[in-house]
Structures are given as C-alpha cells and as structure tokens.
Amino acid sequence: MTLNGKKIVVTGGAGFLGSYVIKELIRKGASPSHITIPRSKEYDLREKEICMIITKHADILIHLAGNVGGIGKNRSHPADLFYDNILMGAHLIHSAQVNKVKKVILIGTICAYPKFTPVPFQEDNLWLGYPEETNAPYGLAKKMLLVGADAYRAQYGLKSIYLLLVNLYGPGDNFDPQSSHVIPALIRKIYEAKKHKQKQIVVWGDGTPTREFIYAEDAARAIVTATETYTNSHPVNIGSGKEISIKDLVQLISDIIGYKGKIRWDSSKPNGQPRRLLDTSRANKEFGFVATTDFLNGLKKTIHWYEKAYGKNI
User: At CB < 8 A and 24+ separation, what contacts does 31-37 make?
Assistant: First the structure.
C-alpha cells in the first residue's frame, strides 16, 4: 500500500510514539495535509459517535492511543486501564468497518503475553495462559484488539494488522513519575538523586527481572513499514530482540549520568513479569524489520534529551 495520497488517521499521534510515527509517515511519502491527529481534549475515543466521526473519510487508521503506565499505575488504576483501552479499541474497529477504512493498524503490547511464557516470546504462545497480574487488565484489554480484528475480518473482511510492542524509550518520552515506564522513571530518579547529592535511591523489586526495550524511532519505522507491506492477520512482535536485567539497567543509567550513590532494592514492591524478551523473527521475515539502534547510544540520547528538557528545573 502506497502512502502517497492516502487519508491517514493516527490516534495518539501527538504522543510520544505518535510523534515518531508521523515523521516516518511523512518521510515515506504521506502528505502532512492528509494526516489527521484527533486530540483527546476534543475527541473522546471511548465514545462510539466520536470514533465514527474521525474514521469517516479515512483510508488508513493507525491506532496508537491508549491509557498506559508502569507498574505503579497498573496497580492503582487497573479499572481505568481496562475500561479506556477496551472501549477505544472496540469502537475504532467497529467504526473502521462501518466507514470502509481500507486498512487498520492496531498496536498491542508485550503485557498481553502470559506471565510464564517460553522465552523468547513467540506470537503462537500468546494464548498459553493469564498475563502477569499487575498488567492483566491493561494487557487483556489490548489483547482484545486482536480478537476484535479477527472477528471483523471474518465477518466483514476488514483489513487489519496487529503489532505487539515491547516497552519504548527515547527522546520525548513520558517522565512523569506517576505514569512513566521503567526507563524514563529511572532516568528521572537517578538524575535527581545526583543533582540533589542523595546518598542512595530506592528501586522497586529485587532487580532480577529482565526487560526488552525498543527505541521509539525503530518502533515507528516498524509500524509504518508494516502499514505499507503487511496484510496477514497473524500478530507480529516488534522489539529489539535483546534483554537486560533491571539491576544492570539501573547500573548502566547510573554510569551514564555519573551517579555514585547506593542502590537499595525494595523487595516488598512487585517485580512484575520475571522475563520479557520477544522472538522478532516474524517481523524480519514478513516485512524485513530489524531494530538498528544500539541500546547504549539510545540511552545516552534519551538522557541527554531529558537533561536539556528538564535539567534546569530540578
């Protein structure tokens, strides 16, 4: 599918990942005047009528919008995460079918995988069990996008694809401690500790879980490439194919920032899923995607951006 001349709606297009996706769409030939970014202040995607309006003349719908957060937010707002994400997804899929959108791109999450999934996670193992408890309401709501996509493809022929993303990081990320994911949360915590000469920081869990991360620019490239070329109903993992323990991640960020204080692990707080690592071979096979950003370089760029954006105010 060529992007030139297509009317494209990108929910969440003003957000962190969305800003990278918009740039990549334009780089690949989409016209800026043909890209619509519905803002949440004006368009509540939990309302069916709103979703009908924004998809009315669309050729392509890329659904990035979501209510997301780290372990803290998943524990404190599980109902909101379930309700918001499942309603947005259901209404957008239905509206896309009614308005005859030519292609729908749905973004899932690694949180949809069962808590104990053989590592690396393969797409065929997505239904082997229940997700990690703290992420389950969010993960299952996002997982229902795949169920909905399959149902609307079977009954109405709706053309859609479903991409499972690992945690993102990069310049422009969300650094709000109440809702940020692990990398921005740690960058902020460690940067502030150094700035205020704190002798120690406290990190949730025991540091043993592993996580996989993908640089936002790489993720955007995967999404746009799949938009252009992938048509299959099978879900596809999007990640870097590399994992790092939380303990090593904390040390790496501390080294980059130059923080020399003590790290105290609060094992009374949840670890989350024991390991997270995707098998990314399907993305490579189906549409030639491989993440190219070196993790250390990506972290340095992210920390440098944070320092410039927030450093003076700390």
Answer: 31/4, 31/5, 34/5, 34/6, 34/7, 34/8, 35/8, 35/9, 35/10, 36/7, 36/8, 36/9, 36/10, 37/9, 37/10, 37/13
